[in-house]
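INFO batch 0412 | record 1 of 1 | parsing
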Amino acid sequence: MPRALVCLLFLSGLVYPDDAEDLANARERIRDLETDIQELIDEVSPAVGAVMNYAAQQNPTTGEVRVTPRSLGSGLIVDPRGFLLTNVHVIAGAGHLTVTLPDGVTYPAVLYADTSEGAVKGDIAVVKLRGKRRFPSCSWNDGDAKRLKPGAFVFAMGNPHGHALDGQPVVTMGIVSGKGRAAAETGYLYIDSLQTDAEINPGNSGGPLFDAKGRFVGINGLMNSRQGRSNSGVGFAIPVNQVRLFMRKLLKDEGGGVGYGFHGLEVVSGEGRDTGAVVRRIVQRSPAAEAGMRPNDLILGVLSKKVRNRTDFVNAIGKLPEGKSVSVKYKRGRSMKVARFKLANYNEFLEEVGRTRQRRGPPPLNERGYLGCEWKAGKGGLVLTKVQPATGAEKAGLRVGDIVLSIDGTDTTDGPTMVNLLAKYEPEARVKLKIERDGRARTVSLTLCDVAEQAGVHE
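INFO prediction complete | emitting tokens
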């Protein structure tokens, strides 16, 4: 018997009725239940989007830009202004984004803010859809993952394997399999997460998990499988209660965000009678160190929550945002102590101790200014072979055959030099080009543009 039908019969309170009347009643209750589920889906699915992340690469020899799909995922609009919740790992990288809604309309989108800059790399991101309308949305305040118990029915919606790119999200049903799980993949740590057997696959990442009343209770993000990237019935979602700790700051300022807080403690589970979390290492000048904690301290509680092992400690403190004040109860020898400190912004802590995070390589193409031209090598500079319409280059009067000699006083002798030079500018930057046309030199001022709009992703 199919699992879904068994579930429906179980919910109906009837399994294998004995007579025709019982069978008719069971069928009626199943039809009522199906109707309830369909109404739930109809109510929340308009706010579920299919996310596409495109990578852009520029050929330094010719200046040509090619855009290819990089990753896909899902998301939930949580504000009628077009703010969509998803995972950081869905939109990370080159980052030319589009979101397709169930009405079939595709909107360009931009990363608004995320939680990727903390001591722990968080997997919550907010994307802003570009569109002049009020978007269908679901509240991020109504659901409560804490009240869910193992066995509670949940629904996952999203874009597995790209099947929702025509607009209609894919729906799967399951139960809460466990709570308080810790899992990690590709550098993103899931703390105090929900485990569910509602089937999720590549492309479901960032999509919503709903309870039986249609309330948003989590962001689907990870799955465990020993058969590669295929479903095995073990998926993890970031609880909405954890999401709420970050939402107000994520929605506050474009380009901002808030990270998971930094405390400076590395712990292991206690052994024997020492139930708790033992401090194995502590970062000097970290908040915990400044509050007086030391290696070998035995942590017994965090914010009035009992700590029996390393997992309890991580679930209690690891999900909190920077700036949160915490209290840690611990034992040193025979003495009981309490340390009180505020979780730090990790980047600010590094600056205070004279260190910084190193950024490797040039910024991705969508963060650089785009000239809007293609070129070939020429005498003394680069000869323009194509000028994209509606760009600053076209508006400034650049033409095919013009020779670009320099940008803001720096010579553009070859294609790689041009690409590396443009990498120093952001979109909307104003630059001065020295060009040669018909044997005469002239200076042209123009505004660099967003490569995504000119590469056909954001139309």
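INFO post-check: The CA atoms of residues 376 and 383 lie 5 Å apart.
INFO record closed
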